[in-house]
Design brief:
Blueprint: H1 26-41, E1 46-48, E2 58-61, E3 71-82, E4 85-89, E5 97-103, E6 106-112, E7 118-124, H2 125-137, E8 148-153
Antiparallel strand pairs: 1-2, 2-3, 3-6, 4-5, 5-8, 6-7
The structure holds zinc ion.
């Protein structure tokens, strides 16, 4: 188990575009495992590789409490979105803050898993929100750009 340092807003790596993964390597497998460890340790529901300073198109998500359903998305591509949901969002790279963001409430995403096997996933609700949020990190976009109204201060317990 290895916890990596989470980059905080203001770190320029968070504004860069990540590169696609061409081949899975032992180093990238370790990165994926470390990303899960780091996300669970920080009690987050998603983490993108640039948040730990690696500009690769890799996202991990687990929106269930206590590690229910871990998802790895390598080179994710959102194929379709529909509907909308408005709710609170937070980010491990923007600690102590939350804000209201409107996202699609259904997404269809294509990606590769950690074995570089392609899959398509349809997701709703919080999982759809997390996929949108994390995929934007791969293009250097933070949710604060979409916040309606002001970013709010929150206690740790309220953070996603
Ligand atoms: Zn984030």
């Amino acid at each position: 188990m290895a916890i990596r340092n989470i980059r905080i807003m203001g770190d320029r790596v968070l504004n860069k575009t990540s590169r696609p993964v061409e081949v899975m390597t032992p180093k990238l497998r370790t990165l994926i495992q470390d990303m899960f460890d780091t996300m669970y340790e920080a009690a987050g529901v998603g983490l993108a590789a640039p948040q730990v300073g690696i500009l690769k198109r890799i996202v991990v998500i687990d929106v269930e409490e206590e590690g229910g359903q871990p998802y790895v998305f390598v080179n994710p591509e959102i194929l379709e979105t529909s509907g909308s949901q408005t709710g609170d969002e937070a980010c491990l790279s923007v600690p102590g803050k939350a804000g209201t963001v409107t996202r699609p409430d259904h997404v269809k995403v294509k990606a590769f898993n950690e074995n570089m096997e392609p899959f398509v996933l349809e997701a709703d609700d919080l999982l759809a929100r997390a996929i949108c949020h994390e995929c934007e990190h791969l293009d250097g976009i933070l949710y604060v750009e979409h916040v309606e109204g002001e970013l709010r201060d929150v206690s740790m317990e309220e953070e996603e």
